[in-house]
Amino acid sequence: MAKQGSKKKTEKPDAAALDFRSMFQYAPAPESSAHVQLASQYELFINGKWEKPLKGEYFETRNPANEQVLARIAMAGKEDVDRAVTAARNAYEQTWSKISAKERAKYIYRIARLIQERAREFAVIESLDGGKPIRESRDMDVPLAANHFFYYAGWADKLDYAFPGKKPHSLGVAGQIIPWNFPLLMAAWKIAPALATGNTVVLKPAETTPLTALKLAELIKDAGLPDGVVNIITGAGATGAALVNHPDINKIAFTGSTEVGKIIQKAVAGTGKKITLELGGKAANIIFEDAPIDQAVEGVINGIFFNQGHVCCAGSRLFVQESVADKVIRKLKDRMESLIVGDPLDKNTDIGAINSKEQLNKIKQYLKIGVNEGAEMYQPACAIPAKGFFCKPTLFLHTSQSHRIVQEEIFGPVLAIQTFRTVEEVIEKANNTPYGLSAGVWTDKGSKIFNLTTKLKAGVVWANTYNKFDPTSPFGGYKESGYGREGGLHGLQPYLKFEA
Ligand code: NAI
Ligand code: MG
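# NAI complex -> structure
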């Protein structure tokens, strides 16, 4: 095949893999962004109005796939945080705590409906600002965000039934800080239960992905929510810290790094503020010899490469039973050869852009650490765009429990593989981590599943599937993965006090 082409063409060492790729190449299928309306500058959403930051400071948010600036974003200072908290307090006292629960539900339903109506716009902006493939933002982030508002709207007027005999009451003002991996979805996870339980909100999105939260603010305005019930302020760590330390906040909800989670925990200790933390993870995906191997391989690929591995519950450690290890590894490598890394807006793309240069550097650092630790690194022959922040999907073979790439959260498309012989051995290895957010088990035997789900120290254990989310099921971790649950009935509790 290669010989028929121009003589100048040089054969690459991985020509076989490239041939395989060219046989199955898709024509580009980019989603249009022509319908998306972005302002060149965004202000702070305080008390139902767009307010300039008092100090007049702004930062830029970029498209990580091409490094272009998308918009200038207001940097909220301490005094802006104070304005937002005051607005939330007034709204709580004057309107939101006074209206009936049924009325509250109507507003929350309206937000859900409007997200559905504007789903395409939200999906495109999510992929532009954060780098995730449009397939994911379209099929997962945005519909799940709408579903969260639908689900919690349903609970708003049924809290007495949710907690019979316990007399649930709202807390007041919730300060919410979210990360960049699921910007709209995390905003929904935070805002929907807070509103349903009768609290008002000040939310701060991450500095690299503020746009869908700001679009959500526009939508909340369109939904006619009373002024000040939801306030959205942008900024970096200092803005988040000012929110955490504000004396008039009743509850802090944080999702992000374990490092910042610990800082927040210390800051809140002794203040009487309620707190939930959703932090990092180093999930184990476990394949037994009796597993449906092709399904398991697909699940592992989805579990770690989905959303570039920017997932706190990413299945970043794989444990394969020794008797099927060669087969699984061969199939994993074959499947990795067919993954498409590139333009997040292209509907064929499997792996989009890494969220920021800092995160890409962190991942590259771990690739070096893995090699230096003696693990064998494998990457497919795929091309990656020259501009923007991209990383090839990566496997590490011959890893051991003491390796840093096995112990530490990388938050990138990097999978560390180990083998095991017995159930007891794999339980011990899987639990040997400071984290405990999620795990996956692949086997044909129901009894093995039940045995493992009770012994794995993880908040969520998926069986013969991975990364499945639903607003009705609680999500959260053990150990350094944080505490408190989001989603489901459990997700209402952190926003309530009880008068039993
Ligand atoms: P981060 O924890 O610094 O950022 C998350 C949010 O917290 C952002 O909105 C940020 O502005 C805010 N924040 C930062 N410092 C704060 C402070 N002192 N007080 C209050 N809020 C503060 O995460 P970062 O730096 O973006 O990512 C670093 C690493 O954290 C990643 O490489 C990854 O390993 C992990 N991470 C985990 C996430 C998860 O969902 N478990 C999400 C994002 C990052
Ligand atoms: Mg951005």
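# post-check
The pocket of NAI (ligand 1) is lined by residues 177-181, 204, 206-207, 236-237, 240-241, 244, 255-257, 260, 263-264, 279-280, 312, 359, 362, 409, 411 (CB under 6 Å).
The domain at 15-27+281-463 is CATH 3.40.309.10 (Aldehyde Dehydrogenase; Chain A, domain 2).
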